[in-house]
## 1
Amino acid sequence: MKIIECRQLTKAYRGFNALDQLSCTIEENKLVGLVGRNGAGKTTLMKILSGMLKGTSGEVKVFSHRPFNSLLVSANSIFIDDQMNFPTALSLAEILEESSRFYEHWNEELAWHLFDYFGFHKKEHHKNLSKGKESTFNMIVGLAARCPLTIFDEPTTGMDAAVRKDFYRILLKDYLAYPRTILLSTHHLEEVEDQLEEVLLLDRGKKVLHMSIEELRELAIGLKGKREILAPFLADRNPIYTEVFGMGDEYIVTRNNFSQKEKQEMKREGIQFSGVSASDLCIYLTTSESQKRRTLDDILN
Amino acid sequence: MTSLTEVRTSEVIVKQYQYKLKAYMGILTSLVTVQLLGLLFSLNGVGFLSTGTLGLDLSIKYYSADMIIIFTFFWGFMSALLMTTKAYREDDFAFITNRFSSNMSSVAFIATASVIGGLTAIMAGFLLRVVVYFILGNKEVIGTGLASGPLAFTTGLLAMILLVFLFSSLGYLAGIIVQVHRVFVILLPVLFFGGLQYLSSTENWNLPAFLYEFYFQESFFLLFAAKVVASAALVFTIALWISDQLEVKK
């Protein structure tokens, strides 16, 4: 069953398109990472999916319904970001109580255990929490709600390393215990990639790729060697990333689709192979033209 | 296969209404402040009359709870306007909602607040009399209006509640219009007062006079009630229609 379907989805703001003809589908019970640079359109997409914003053109379906103004989508999804607005008059304990009244599958036990574990006080108020504590509390609400579609936008903002680690553990554990579709946007892919099943990479409102994390890890290969030696092997290829260093040495990232024969040849020529991590690859794939033309080194030197 | 939760709109509205009763307590606290302020202003009296003949001096000072009532209308208008602001609307989106249920639960809350506001405003009239009694010491206090029988009192109370509701609905609509575009913060008062000024100076049709006649000169209470409720319903419907397209968390 498809939980999310986008066809040619565009969200236009004055002067630019936050989402540009985006098409994607997300299947049921997947843990999907939404990755991309700042301004890639991650948050816009998530807000459209949760019915907060309205797409300018194209089609978007969540549970086969248009999410904007849909009570069904609202009841079965939750959107957690670092700007969560909870009623200021309610204490933390009251917010959890209200949430439990609204969300049918609310996990009372998990909510209160985590509440105690992370050292919250019942009478505290949400607006007085520190950035990291706020994110932690929002995360508790997001997990305990157990909505069939759970959307986390940068859930770890402000969390310290220990809490982040805890969060990823709880996320995976609870996901396995209660499978649901989880969409998670992050700038720290390396921290979550072991939990994720799929990655959806956006760049300037467009889909760059959508594949399983295993495929992504195998997608590219890093080659290191003398430029003259590398050149013939790369003749009819587009390198994803090129870095020059030392005396005519080059590090080149390219698609990992060399034949066995080519690889052996390269090895003989002294070219070193290395894997490219998912998070590095995502950065290389979303390097803008202006950055390629003029590297940061040129500016700094 | 994920089983989806089916929800009924009415259920969600009731839940939201219950949470708003808790979350919007601040609005009722401000009511107390506003009415006490109105009471304070009322202590000055609205009129003074003094005559003296042949060694007999007669001084009459008039007190009126009008100020409390006007302040309560203002409170209703502002509170409803406040409820349409970004922070309040986003609060609803922390839980299950759509724009319709969010608006309807707000209307239900405003209705409740109007009952409380109207009731306390009328009661504050009695408080004014008590306070005046103590201020004046051993002088005579003659009450008018308030003690004119249970039927008149009830009618007055209901009318008060309905009018607070009407003013609140106007505040709600004004708030929603401002949410559409910031420019209405300036444009709306300009249009309102400008239009009022213009319409009250035209010869053949005077809007303020018409409104006064339409609502306040209506002697048959049920008809008055129907007029006010219908007007408020119309205003809320327009607000609902506009806000149905409003995005949140831009």
## 2
Amino acid sequence: MIRVAGRPRTLLDVPTHYCPGCTHGIIHRLVAETIDALAIRERTIGVASVGCSVFIYDYLDVDFQQAAHGRAPAVATGIKRVLPDRVVFTYQGDGDLASIGAAEILHAAARGERITVIYVNNALYGMTGGQMAPTTLPGMRTTTSPEGRDVRRHGAPLRMAELLASLDGVAYAAREAVSSPARIHRARRAVEAAFRAQLDDRGLGIVELLSTCPVNWGLEPTDALAWCEAHMVPVFPLGVFKDVRRAREPVDARA
Amino acid sequence: MSRVLMKGNEAMAEAAIRAGCRAYFGYPITPQSELPEYMARHLPAAGGVFLQAESEVAAINMVYGAAGAGARVMTSTSSPGFSLMTEGLSYLVGARLPCVVVTVMRGGPGLGNIAPSQADYFQVTRGLGHGDVHAIVLAPSTVQEAVELVGLAFALAERYRLPVIVAADGLLGQMMEPVELPPALPVPQAPPWATTGAATGRRVISSIHLDPEALERHVLELVATYDLIAAREPRWEADGVEGADVAVVAYGTTARIARSAVARARARGLAVGLLRPITLWPFPIAAFASAPRRWLVAEMSSGQMVDDVRLAVEGRAPVLRYTRVGGVVPTPVELAEAIVRAARPAAVPA
């Protein structure tokens, strides 16, 4: 049963610093609902990353560590390795995970760290004022791609969910959006599945969530939701790319 | 106590395990790779966690996570890897997390070489990372002392809730010496501030304080801790410094060589002293209250510690220097000659 009304226990009753129309608030709620549903609040440790969501530790009632830019999967690895019976998740944006932290997420995934990664993709750097990210859409104008992203010069967007799904250590990889109630419903299921991959000791679970940034996109909140559907979803297809129900038996060179 | 013949890098690893360290994260780099190799062989058997990270950047951030989760944790590296760890060290200091970082210094700049060096003195004493960042820096000069200082490093890290750096050099890491190993300490419980799950109220480990006045308070608390450390923790060894014709100042491997060089110079009738800083930060300023006629700073860098010596001496006596760079280790003979030259009246410019 999914709770549809009332504040989740894990979501603190405080105003957030997010801009009007930003969907971080929805995603925070999905994480909080999942932590409640799985009854893991008292043994969960979150890792906040650098970006708009750095202050997530003010909004969720769990222990938190704040990581350097991009390093959240390494910090989460350190926590999980010394506290293997705890639940550890990172909450990272696209600049953090796909750009400066590409090595850390790739190797945490390759090692099959038993962590959950909530990856929020809004196609640019929100906190620093709307610069181009590795996820910026072709032709999309940002403050550092004023003529629009030129694929010949800047490359094409990185599809991290698909990329990570290709690694043996990843048990669950999905991409969803939070641009409509139906999408949010699917996203909620994906977040829970990504936590369950950790709880069942199957491997790393990652959910990429397409998010809006009305302020830096220069759009009204409702227009931003429509823009996400019209422009982001075609570039970043939604769906479950991997769902390994049992831990894969590794091939052992000694065998 | 047990006396065994061990390589410096392996002895530091064993000392860490005996000090209750149960988590190691690191990346291979010469001349310290025997340390993670030893940890890989022995730490899991001791109930600890060994993990080879994808980079020094990741390693120091794994240390951050484990330290924040309440583990007694360390990493080790050498100069180029230490540069990569300075980002993480700034965050560790900012978040007040204890850990031990061993750096086995090699020749630089850049890839440099894998020979012994002390050219990272400024980095460990002045440049640990952005912001007002300091950490205690311990500089062993024998494998035995390295063992003792690794144990001390964990105690100091936890006492002040800050990283502690053990700054060795390639010669110390690679040489074998007989060592007395201390008895094993118990593994500590996670401290109350550690993020182990919010069963009894939640904890947040962070280095961000957006409000300038809040950050100022945080930095001033750090500065108060630095002041406490500067008052309590300077360590040094002095031999015949007061009234000497020349007092040599040297640390680490260079101090061992200086000991032989001092003996040679004394045999030629000179009054020569030796002052060996054991803590590079805080620098043992009080030791420089002794008054030789001249100071001679010997180091395997282009002349870095000499700045601290000049600050400590405050112009009361001339401060000369003898340096070798690029991984060249001075011989006792050449350093003895430098002492003899320093003792001549003409050695000091008018």
